[in-house]
Amino acid sequence: MLSIDSLERGVVIDHIEAGKAMEIYNYLGLDKLECSVAIIKNVKSNRMGKKDIIKIEDEIETDLHMLGFIDTNITVNIIDGGTIIKKMNITLPDKIVNIIKCKNPRCITSVEQELPHVFKLTDPERKVYRCAYCEQQAEH
Ligand SMILES: [Zn+2]
Q: Which helix (H) or strand (E) element contains residue 21?
């Protein structure tokens, strides 16, 4: 069982908006990991009131910068030897690949199943992403 307070090595995804942990779990495909993953919901936070935290007891290969697509307030700490060795700054990614799918039924990605699902940030102010193939706006 993964301890909630200590993590020897792995990744801590913190400052997740309360209730969003499962969404992130699904986006990152954490169900496919063999290692322990702990989702801690409704943790008291001075800054946010309540927040969710995800702890992953291993390194993961997923590009965690993708998290910026969901929320740029999320923080990511990489843990090794029981201490934080790296803090990642999460910003709006310019491009997201294979995180969401295009909803346009006429989009080439709904025909050519093996194409990567690529969305590009077209309006950073309004956080609008559009499909790289058909320019359909992303929904999430
Ligand atoms: Zn499309």
A: helix 21-27
Is residue 66 within 8 A of residue 53, CB to CB? The reply is: no
- 136 CA to middle of ligand 1, Å? 5
Neighbours of 116 (CB within 10 A): 8
Do the Cβ atoms of 41 and 73 come closer than 8 Å? Answer: no
CA of 128 to the centre of ligand 1 (A): 14
pTM score: 0.81
Distance 135 CA to ligand 1 centre (A): 6
pLDDT, tens digit, 9 for 90 and up, residues 56-115: 998 887 788 889 988 999 999 999 999 999 999 899 999 999 888 999 999 999 999 899
Instruction: Give me the residues near ligand 1 (ion), CB cutoff below 5 Å.
Output: 102, 104, 107, 131, 133-134, 136
- Compute CA 83 distance to the chain's CA centroid, rounded to the nearest angstrom: 22
Do β-strands 10-17 and 49-56 pair in parallel, antiparallel, or remain unpaired? antiparallel
Q: Return the SS3 of 38.
A: strand
